[in-house]
Amino acid sequence: MTRVGLVLVSHSARLADGLAELAAQMAPDVAIIPAGGSDGELGTDFDLVSDALSRAQSGAGVVLLYDLGSAKLVADIAVEMLGDPTSAAVVDAPLVEGAIAAAVAAQSGADLDAVLSAAASALSAGADGPTASGNRVEIELTNDVGLHARPAGLLVRALADLDAEVTVEYQGRTADARSVLGLLGLGAPGGARVSVTADGPDATEALGRVEDLAARRFAS
């Protein structure tokens, strides 16, 4: 399967590299290419961004995220210089949150428009998500780190193709199970017990997948 790639344009090479490493934990099959800094200093480099854009392209398109204004300008120019500028797009989204949301969407096989939408709406699905009213199970987070980045990403991906509204509740806080950021916001550690509720045509399948992930200690 070809997947949408990501380019992370930042004034800081360390920021871009670290964010790429974090996002890759949740999207191991997605090309996530950092393009940070300029000649070892703070800044942005058109050639670096263009090279990253080429490396991230697998045929499904590329989403570029940026940190500050001039990074957007460089990213926009890099896209305009493509032979087919419709094969890539710059998204206005918070860099860290948008990159995580986009990476998870791309890992699930979403197309370019869907990955762009996931990045753009990264902050709209906070820790207090919708509350489903259907079937409910309680599970123990049997892995050491609980709902940290990689397990949260696995959970989102497990539910990606299902027609179900799923929420996770921990200590009175709820999160949309399709939002990595919302799940991280719960702060549920290893050993915690969380309540998972699902509603919709695939509710039973959704709960089964969540239980299976917990039984496997959130191993991919």
From TrEMBL:
Signal peptide: none annotated. Residues 134-220 form the HPr domain. It holds the Pfam family PTS-HPr. GO terms for molecular function: phosphoenolpyruvate-glycerone phosphotransferase activity. Residues 3-130 form the PTS EIIA type-4 domain. PROSITE patterns: PTS_EIIA_TYPE_4, PTS_HPR_DOM, PTS_HPR_SER. GO terms for cellular component: membrane. Its EC number is 2.7.1.121. InterPro entries: DhaM, DhaM_N, HPr-like, HPr-like_sf, PTS_EIIA_man-typ, PTS_EIIA_man-typ_sf, PTS_HPr_Ser_P_site. GO terms for biological process: glycerol catabolic process; phosphoenolpyruvate-dependent sugar phosphotransferase system. Homodimer. The dihydroxyacetone kinase complex is composed of a homodimer of DhaM, a homodimer of DhaK and the subunit DhaL. PANTHER family: PEP-DEPENDENT DIHYDROXYACETONE KINASE, PHOSPHORYL DONOR SUBUNIT DHAM. Component of the dihydroxyacetone kinase complex, which is responsible for the phosphoenolpyruvate (PEP)-dependent phosphorylation of dihydroxyacetone. DhaM serves as the phosphoryl donor. Is phosphorylated by phosphoenolpyruvate in an EI- and HPr-dependent reaction, and a phosphorelay system on histidine residues finally leads to phosphoryl transfer to DhaL and dihydroxyacetone. This is phosphoenolpyruvate--glycerone phosphotransferase. It comes from Actinokineospora fastidiosa. The gene is dhaM.
